[in-house]
Write a structure and sequence with these properties.
Blueprint: H1 2-5, E1 15-18, E2 21-22, H2 33-37, E3 42-48, E4 53-58, H3 71-76, E5 79-84, E6 94-95, E7 98-99
Antiparallel strand pairs: 1-2, 1-5, 3-4, 3-5, 6-7
């Protein structure tokens, strides 16, 4: 299959950007519209034409952050392909054991699945 030959395979949704254009596929992927279009804490991953990976975590549900929708912003960041990940209190970005955003729950939330990116040591 195509997935067997892929370098990276992710399962999430909905698809947000395809071939550099906004293509939110919440209906065909049977994902609730509020996930695709509502303003909330969000997480997304995209790939630029040169292969650079773009990861976005947006806060929300706070007086100083109302959240966002993602497709248009991922295009502004240069993504030619982008995928929505879990949102809400699960939206958290950690770098070197430091939380970089303000999760909407006020602290970390236990999750069963996460995305980890690690540097390759030579």
């Amino acid at each position: 299959t195509v997935a067997d030959k892929a370098e990276v395979v992710l399962g999430a949704g909905p698809m947000l950007v395809e071939d550099g254009k906004r293509n939110v596929r919440s209906v065909s992927e049977q994902i609730a519209g509020d996930i695709a279009y509502g303003r909330a804490p969000r997480t997304a991953i995209g790939v630029k034409k040169d292969g650079t990976v773009v990861i976005l975590v947006a806060d929300g549900r706070r007086t100083n952050s109302v959240g966002m929708t993602l497709a248009r912003y991922m295009i502004k960041l240069g993504a030619v392909s982008a995928l929505n990940f879990d949102g809400g209190g699960s939206s958290e970005m950690v770098l070197n054991n430091k939380i970089l955003n303000n999760p909407s729950d006020g602290n970390e939330r236990a999750v069963s699945v996460g995305l980890g990116l690690f540097s390759k040591k030579n």
